Structure formats: structure tokens, C-alpha cells
Amino acid sequence: MIETSTPNKLSNLNKKDPSQKQAAVFHKMKRLKPLSIRKPSIAKKRPQIKNISQQFSHAETILSITDLCVYFSATKVLKNININFPKKGLVAIMGPSGCGKSTLIRAINRMHELDQSTNVTGKLMLGNQDITTLPAMAVRQRIGMVFQRPNPFPNMTIFQNVLSGYILTGMRLNKKQKNEIVIENLKKAFLWDEVKDRLHERGTFLSGGQQQRLCIARSLAMQVDVLLLDEPTSALDPIATTRIENLLQTLKKEIPIIMVTHNTAQASRISDYTAFLYLGELIEYNKTKIMFTVPSDKRTEAYLMGRFG
Questions:
Q1: Looking at domain 46-304, does it have CATH number 3.40.50.300?
Q2: What own/partner pairs with CB < 8 Å and gap ≥ 24 does 268-273 have?
Q3: What is the pTM of this model?
């Protein structure tokens, strides 16, 4: 005689009404212990520090800005900005369009003085010197600036573009000094190997990414104390952008860099500190890792999440 296994109650219900099967499964689930649910990591407390400037000692600070305001006619574009920039590393300045990012670094470089309708107030200390009291040309010799679109001098060769700061200020160099400055700074800008056989061609004959690196070499040649970058990769293709980012990762070990960027992913990749501006105000300034993980202000979090900007 062959034994037959007795089907369990649940399998018997397969032949019955489906509602009875659901009732049996529900009855079985009621006897299970409930799972313990952990709170997500997002629920971490927001850090209390919104401006890391106070943590930089005087010896660690290259540039200190106090109560900076910028007016375009009667419109107040920057509102009492207080921020210190460290001697080492790269600081990214981010925020939505029209928040005052480019206005801030142009104020540092004294570019607004070219516009009669602009008024700048506040104190800008480069080391122990208030740069608002210096001639604008003297400030630009100490603070280099690279703009959004590459702008090598069109009537100069690659060789002359690197030396343009010396040429335009009337500083005389011998042939050996000129060669050393050109070679050294083209190498710093990761450009030497690409142009060493074309030094006497015009700089405008280079590709967009090469032109931007030439502009960086031009600033470095003056041995500036700070390098300002105004969205330096926004007009470049992804390959050229990667080269610029790799260059900045190396340069920031030698010279403090302040970079305006519209690209939050870029800020998270290459910056050590990040400042977030919104409607002309400095909302938050902290180490990049902290800001991108647990921002101290809800507006910063909303911007990083892409809710506006």
C-alpha cells in the first residue's frame, strides 16, 4: 500500500475561495514579531556652525572679508558678507543664478571700480593689508583672476601671453628669466607638453580647454597670493573640464583658490570648503564634506537637493 502525504491546510485552500486563503495568511502573519525600524541617517542633528571662518586663526587666513556690501546703483547686491579664506585648499562658492557669487570675487579683484554706478563698502584684508586702500593694479598683481570664457590676448603668442603681466606693467626680464617663467608655469598648468613646439603661435589658435589653462598659467606667472576662478569650466566640454579639475586638485596644494561654480557635483569633487550664497547673503560656509552631508541651514539642503537654483 502506497502512503500519500496529507496536504497542509494552506494548500487545501488553493482549491477554495481565494478570500479564505488570504484570511489564513493574515492569521499566520499576526503571530510574527514586529520588525524594529531604525531611524534613517538623515535624521542627524544639523551642525550648529554656519560659518567656519571663526575657526581659522590669523596665521591660517590669507584673505579676510568684513561687512562687504556691493551696490549696483540703489540695489544692494551683496549684504554684509563676512568670510575668511584659508591659506591652503580650494573654496567653492555656489548658489543659484543672481545670488552674488561672481559679484563677490569681482569685488575682491576690484573689478567693480570700472563701473561708475557701483559702490563697494567693507574691509578686505589680504594678509595684514587692506586692499581697498591699494591701487587696483597693485591688487590684481597679487590676486589673479580667470574668467568664465577663456580670454588669451589675441595679438600675443602663447609665449607672450604667459609673460603678459610683466609686459603690460613694464617689468623687464632677461631672456633666461623669460624662458624659465614660461616653461615653469606652462608645466604647472599641465600645458607644456601640448604647446612646447608652438610657443610662437597665437594663443587664440588653441582649443577652449587649452586657452583656459593658458589663462591660468598667465595668472600663476605673476606669483599671485590668491587665484580667483569664475566658473572656469562652464564653457568647456567634459574632457577639458576633467583636465581643469585635475589641474586645480594639484594647484590647491601650492596656492589658495577661490572658485565660483554653478555645478554642485564639481564643488563636492574638488573643493575643501564650500560657501553657499542666496539672495546676496552668505547662508552657510563649512567644510565641503560636512555641508554636503548635514547642511546646517534648510535653504542649503533645498539647493543641494535641486529644489531651486
A1: yes
A2: 268/292, 269/245, 270/90, 270/92, 270/245, 271/89, 271/90, 271/91, 271/92, 272/86, 272/88, 272/89, 272/90, 272/91, 273/52, 273/86, 273/89, 273/90, 273/91, 273/92
A3: 0.82
